[in-house]
Write a structure and sequence with these properties.
By secondary structure, this protein is an alpha/beta fold. 45% of the residues lie in helices and 17% in strands. It has a 7-stranded mixed β-sheet with strand order 3-2-1-6-7-12-13, sandwiched between helices. Strands 9-10-8-11 form a 4-stranded parallel β-sheet, with helices on both faces. A two-stranded antiparallel ribbon has the order 4-5. The structure holds 6-O-phosphono-beta-D-fructofuranose.
């Protein structure tokens, strides 16, 4: 019997999404004779029943294109903004799923998408997911597609910043995406030879950072490159967050808990992407002229690297095979050379952060790179 499958991409876009859609679609149709439709703009398009036929024509010529031909959004099935209000649209989504007689729904996305897909799985939909994000922070998989391309962009930027920093004897601080994880900043900083690398997992001491830059000057190196993750925080900020988290945990009063949680959210938002402030402080402490480059969405745009195309194709084709076998409620993960299904319940809500003993951290320390702590 012919199987019907739907595909959507959700969350921030990521290079390799089209390669994944192509991998799923071509294998599902060509090898297993399935019918494939796409939903536009993530869970929003599924709720609004906006579809696109993913036939041979639609899948042709998309392998090398960045972004996603399906469009994407950050909408959540159970908290969708409708007329200014957040509404639970799970039942409408389930209705549309059944309207199309779907046997499976493929959700391609990051941590948030895994969570949303798991929610639909618990509500009776045959869901299967693929891990994509430039942040590389999804647990249960060795890597996520998009990361390698973004890494390449960030490394090229650091390479270019070197010559201008050197010519002007400046500190150049390059802000790198990654949300609350430091994979991109650490990987790019190491590959690009940054002198300081600051990541969210290691709260930094600004005095130590300034000292490392001054030490370079004493050694005759009159410029420094600082690779900073957008989510990097100082030791003081971390302390304040810990205090607030502690208070939230200890408070039993519901209203007070809510107020404190809001305060914490606000504090975290203010601490996020504070690179201009970091530059000002470093300039003050070192008396060295500083400049900031924020790479932002440049890291997510453009053609996917060969590695990301390969990974996305590998996961996409394996996904079609798992659907043929009727394996749902899983994420298709990369583990070494293998491609394996991992239960969504095992990975949802678990962010993969850089462990303190990761070989990249060890290499950075061995090189004498300042990581903001001792
Ligand atoms: O999760 C991918 C990511 O690019 C993060 O690195 C970044 O913090 C976030 O998305 C930016 O999201 P938006 O495109 O919604 O501004």
């Amino acid at each position: 019997m012919t199987k019907y499958i739907g595909v959507l991409t959700a969350g921030g876009d990521s290079p390799g999404l089209n390669a994944a859609i192509r991998g799923i679609g071509k294998t599902a149709q060509g090898l297993y004779g399935m019918e494939v439709i796409g939903f536009r703009d993530g869970f929003r398009g599924l709720m609004e029943n906006r579809t696109i036929r993913l036939d041979g024509n639609a899948l042709s010529g998309i392998l090398t294109i960045g972004g996603t031909i399906l469009g994407t959004s950050r909408d959540k099935p159970n908290k969708m903004l409708i007329g200014g209000k957040k509404m639970d649209m799970t039942s409408v989504i389930a209705e549309n799923y059944h309207k199309h007689h779907l046997d499976a729904l493929v959700c391609i996305g990051g941590g948030g998408t895994q969570k949303n897909a798991y929610h639909l799985w618990k509500n009776g939909l045959n869901v299967i997911t693929l891990p994509k994000t430039i942040d590389n922070d999804i647990s249960g998989t060795d890597s996520t597609f998009g990361f390698d391309t973004a890494l390449g962009v960030a490394v090229e930027a650091i390479d270019r910043l070197h010559s201008t920093a050197h010519s002007h004897h400046r500190i150049i601080i390059c802000e790198i995406m990654g949300h609350n994880s430091g994979w991109l900043a650490l990987g790019a900083g190491l590959s690009g030879g940054a002198d300081v690398i600051l990541i969210p997992e290691i709260p930094y001491d600004i005095e130590l950072v300034a000292e490392s830059i001054l030490n370079r000057r004493r050694a005759g190196k009159h410029f420094s490159i600082v690779a900073v993750a957008e989510g990097a925080i100082s030791i003081e900020e971390k302390k304040k967050m810990d205090i607030l988290e502690n208070r939230i945990e200890k408070t039993e009063d519901k209203e007070k808990k809510k107020k404190l949680s809001k305060e914490l959210e606000q504090f975290k938002a203010n601490a996020f992407g504070n690179t201009m402030q970091l530059a000002k402080e470093l300039e003050k402490l070192t008396m060295v002229e500083s400049r900031v480059t924020i790479l932002g969405h440049l890291q997510r745009g453009g053609i996917p690297s060969a590695y990301d195309r390969l990974l996305a194709t590998r996961l996409g084709t394996a996904c079609a095979k798992l659907i043929d076998q009727g394996q749902y409620g899983v994420m298709v993960a990369a583990r070494g050379e293998a491609t394996v299904p991992v239960l969504l319940e095992q990975i949802v809500g678990k962010k993969k952060l850089v462990p303190f003993d990761h070989p990249w951290i060890e290499s950075a320390r061995n090189l004498g790179t300042c990581l903001g702590n001792k």
